[in-house]
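Re: weekly structure request thread

Next one in the queue (181 aa):
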Amino acid sequence: PRTAVRVGLNYSDRDSFLFPRRGWHAGVSVEKAGTFAPGVTYLSTRAEVARYSPIDVDTAIWEGRAALAQRLLLRVGWDLPERYRFPLGGVDSVRGAKVDMVDRMALLNTEVRFELAPGFGLAGFWDVGTSLSADVPPKSSVGFELTAYIAGMYVRLVTAWPSDRPATWVPVFEFAMNPLF
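Done, posted below.
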């Protein structure tokens, strides 16, 4: 069993929830489990900052909205059981890469997002992540992501070429039902 308390502070001045084009989003949190109740005991922290910058697209064939989005995420844990370690790789960190569970990690996600229609977008991305504690080599991936906001949730289809798999023209496909950042 796990009994945990998490406290955090968030700041956001993004101009839109569905398709932010300018502004910042930042947050820090601390989670403590055990000590004051039965179950596993650990401490973990999370710090995240995301920046959104507008890109105006005005060509002869398409006029649309786009944005450069970047996120830096740091996660550090002490005495984490295997079940509560952080996933480095996979659809929520380094897209397309094999998942390794780590105690400490740093992650940078960079995207150029295009709004195809309200609630529907396409992004080209580059993800870089590294473990700050385990013997896990750094991971990177590039690719494309289709995102749709349907019935109050994000649906994402990822096509990625990660660095921790053999180089080939065939991408890794992933599916998720949540926003990345």
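The longest strand covers residues 42-58. The CA atoms of residues 161 and 168 lie 8 Å apart.
Next request, please.
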